[in-house]
Every structure is written in C-alpha cells, then in structure tokens.
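Category: protein sequence paired with discrete backbone structure
Discipline: computational structural biology
Format: plain text, a pair of labelled lines
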Amino acid sequence: MYVDALSDWEVCKRDILPIARKLKDEGKILHIGLSSHNPEVALEAIKEKDLSVLLFSVNPCYDLQPAGEDVEQLWAESAYSHPLLNMDPERQRLYETCERQGVGIDVMKAFGGGDLLHADVSPAKVSLSPYECMAYALSRPGVASVMAGARSVGELAEDGKYSDAPEDQKDFAGALASMPMIRWEGHCMYCGHCAPCPVGISVADVTRYLNLARAQGSVPETVAQHYSVLAHHGSECIGCGACETRCPFHVPVRENMRLAAKTFGV
C-alpha cells in the first residue's frame, strides 16, 4: 500500500487492510507493509499493529521537513530557504515507534533522487557520498535496510560494497556539521564521534535507548532489555567530558548519561 494522505489511509484501513489481514490469516501472504513519504500517515498506520515493514523516505534533508501530503515539498527549494534546526519531531517519533514495535523501515530516497550527492543541487548545499547517505539512514532507529538507487551497473556495484567499506568513508558527521543552513544542535546523531569512552560506555547506544524511553514516556520492556545487556551503562559515567569535546553536534552527553542511569536504574 502506498499512502501519503490521511484520507487515503482511512480508505485503505476500511477497504484494503481487512483483505490483507484475511490473506495473512490464510497464509497467502506473510507480512503487511505500507509505503509512504508522510510520517503522520505512517504513525496512524502503525497504530493498527498490523504492519511489519514500512517503506519510507529517509535522508538528512527530508528528516528536517514537517509532515505533509504533497511529496514535492520534500525537495522544494522554498522548504530550505531558511535556517533549519534538528529533525522534525514527528519523523523522530515515527522512527522510534517503529523500533519499539518491531516494524522494520526499508529506506527509499536515501540519496534524495541523487541530489544529495552533488553540492550544486543539494538542498543542504553540501555533497554527501552514497556511503554517507546510507550510513545516516541505517543509524536512524527502526531502519532495517536501504534501497540504494543506481543509474548504472557500476553504481549498483559500488553501492553493494558498502558493508566492506572502511568506517571513515561512512562517517557522515563532518558533512552534516558543515551544512550552512542546517543545524543539528544538541541532537545525538548516533555517529560515534564521542568514542572512545575511558570506561567503555557506548554513548550512542545508551543515548538511543534513553531517547526511546523518553519518547514513550515510560520504559518499554523491550527497551529495558536492550539497555540491560549493554556492557556498560550510564551510571558508570565518570563525568570527564571527553565525549562532549569530540561531539560535532554539542550533545550534553554527561547529562544524558545521568538521565539514563535514573531512567533505567543502572
């Protein structure tokens, strides 16, 4: 199902979803999925608890844009004509809800139709590499895979080498921090630049689970379980601040570690 308007989702929920449920119950299909560019629609669909996969557009420019039924606005020049700060809250809520509920996000538009690869046409005015775009998408909560677009067999072959590429070729933090009209101030991008922690805390993982719990307003059992099996927890932070000096986005890491220890009790 491809749905960008809430009114269309209401039709799908009434007329199409019951058919999909019946086919799944009969074993004729294994999973039910939705394709959308609109986080508002996707969140409404996920409430039904039927979806196991969501095809959704994810990249560092689209993530700044509010929900809307007109997909053209995601790359409209006017949408980037003024300074933008951090991810749209509804998009973040969508990704975190998908992770909590076990809905796998299959990413489309990771390269923004190719625009993000060229500074002269990119809304961010900075060029990103295909590997940086893929790494960004895969770092978002709930994301399970990326459908990398290609215009030739050669490009497809290069995209396929992502898993074997060195980590410095996947490092998107520098490019995001240099975007002239876009700021990710205080927002953890799970990029790992805060490492290494002298006591071994995986700051990105602790922050991810903290954000999942804060978004829910409670501590879901699955999130608590994931946090509990981390090798080191927020309570072990010694407050040295070395992580904060390395963070390109000025995240208050020490405060996050204190909040994680309070939230999860360890």
Q: What stands out?
A: Residues 122 and 191 are 21 Å apart (CA to CA).
